[in-house]
Amino acid sequence: MSNIISNLLSTALDNVAGNLKQDAKILEAFADLLKSGGNHHCHHGDSSSNSSSSSNSSNCRGKTSEEGYDGTGRIWGDPHFEGAKGQKYDIQGEAGHKYNLLSDEGINVNAKFQAYGSNGATTVGELGVILDGDEIKATADGKLTINGKEITEDGSYLNGAVEKHGDKITIKNNHYQITFTDKGDYFDLDLKATDAGQDREPGGLWGQSLDGDKIDTDYKHFEVSNLFSTPKNQVGYSGDELGGNGHGHHSNGGGLSSINTDFEVPELEGDTTQDALNFQKAMFEFATKVSAATTAINTLGNALKDATGKVPQ
């Protein structure tokens, strides 16, 4: 009986997610149309930010390539970034704060920055990855956990998706390969993307470099609440946090009640330029909320499918 109920609920959620995806595609096309009209205001941070903050961040990203993105890069030291298109930039951040490095379909990589020396420099001290629903955490004191279980032996895990060899941890899926190198008290990262960004525009402090657009160096736009949070309201990534403890489908909180689908479609009020800009901003925020709900529903659907296989027949 549990198996039947799980299958029915999973199918229902998939159907809802499919409808939301169609809505999101329509909104994305509308957003592209608005962007092509000239001035536009959007940003990577919290949708509650004021208009001056929005106008100062010019990277409104919209997926235009159906071929995906390729590129290699790295994050090292305190921290220096080399983007996928050869961009060079530094993101110091704040010690003790957590930031999204990469967000794309099936993968989310966050890092906790830590103090390095006494002059305000920082390094990457902890990493949290959600890889196709599995949670991987690495700390610079040599600890690796997968779905809460500590891994002490070198080897291959999650059917080869995670490999541990000495001071190197490599995670990979169909589009990304990322190696964390433990330097003793901080991490360096090597990143490779292959045909990435198929379903959404990659985001994050490094992920943003894949499309070759201008780099947003305001780290506050990429801050997350914990190592397994998804980014809040980043344009191009449907990433609002799901509620609870923020640990994806392993969360003790969240669930269906945490998914807001009570959206009101914005309406254009007035015919001034400012009215049009306000309407455009509202439409972007609407699209982000719809996309976030899609991700949340898909996460629950996948979790239910996984659970179905574990229920005794």
UniProtKB/TrEMBL annotation:
Residues 40-77, 233-261 are annotated as: Disordered. Residues 74-183 form the VWFD domain. Residues 241-256 have a biased composition (Gly residues). This is VWD domain-containing protein. Residues 47-59 have a biased composition (Low complexity). It comes from the Bacteria.
